[in-house]
Task: inverse folding
């Protein structure tokens, strides 16, 4: 599940029952994991590559939400919220984050959608996002985004915070020892946009809060430019700076 800045959280179709997957679904998961774990080598940021073994995903069988939720709870105190059968608006999304819950869907894309699914499925959630949530520092900063969002007093501020999230956690780049690496889960879990974003001709700018706050995200197409943060600490500094600029401190 992802929050998008058009004011409507993207929502997976309501299908099946949690955990009730066919062998074809497991095979889709296996193929996605196999391909994507190759593609992210050398381009994913350190936090992702170090977090993945801690997460302990089985690349051959679809994950069990309760089991993964318990694992994250033991590691960082976060749980996975069941977002499968509820409408999730941006405010609900950030309420979950403020309460240390990461909303996930149980939906897995159809076999003919291996390359692209317009709706985030559980491959995006588990493969793209959850490795980061094995890191206490990252998890604490994610909660901070939720807390600041809930202090916003205008739709403009809410939209800005959703975009600061979108262009870092979903589609961001990070500097690592002088190289550009990928931190965005939307890129790490998408073979198509990953390769698109890595093209040298695609503009990548230093992260600028005002510029990003004014830029809508692309939910149904690839982005035409990306933004670079300096580190995970910088990701924290972005939300803290925004909160200070807008008077959203406690
Ligand atoms: Fe996402």
Result:
């Amino acid at each position: 599940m992802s929050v998008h800045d058009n004011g409507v959280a993207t929502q997976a179709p309501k299908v099946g029952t949690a955990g009730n997957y066919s062998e074809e679904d497991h095979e889709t998961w296996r193929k996605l994991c196999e391909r994507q774990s190759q593609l992210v080598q050398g381009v994913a940021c350190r936090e992702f590559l170090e977090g993945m073994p801690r997460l302990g995903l089985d690349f051959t069988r679809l994950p069990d939400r309760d089991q993964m939720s318990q694992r994250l709870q033991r590691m960082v105190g976060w749980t996975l919220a069941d977002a499968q059968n509820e409408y999730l608006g941006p405010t609900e999304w950030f309420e979950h984050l403020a309460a240390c819950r990461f909303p996930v869907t149980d939906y897995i894309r159809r076999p003919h959608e291996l390359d692209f699914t317009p709706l985030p499925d559980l491959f995006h959630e588990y493969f793209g996002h959850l490795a980061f949530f094995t890191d206490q520092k990252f998890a604490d900063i994610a909660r901070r985004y939720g807390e600041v969002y809930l202090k916003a007093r205008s739709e403009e501020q809410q939209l800005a915070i959703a975009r600061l999230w979108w262009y870092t956690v979903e589609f961001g780049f990070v500097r690592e020892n002088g190289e550009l690496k990928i931190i965005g889960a939307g890129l790490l879990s998408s073979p198509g946009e990953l390769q698109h974003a890595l093209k040298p001709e695609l503009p990548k700018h230093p992260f600028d809060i005002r510029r990003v706050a004014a830029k809508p995200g692309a939910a149904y197409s690839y982005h035409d430019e990306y933004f670079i943060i300096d580190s995970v600490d910088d990701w924290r500094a972005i939300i803290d700076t925004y909160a200070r600029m807008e008077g959203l401190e406690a």
Q: What stands out?
A: The beta strands are 79-82, 101-104, 173-176, 179-182, 204-206, 226-229. The two ends are 28 Å apart (CA to CA). The domain at 23-245 is CATH 1.10.800.10 (Phenylalanine Hydroxylase).
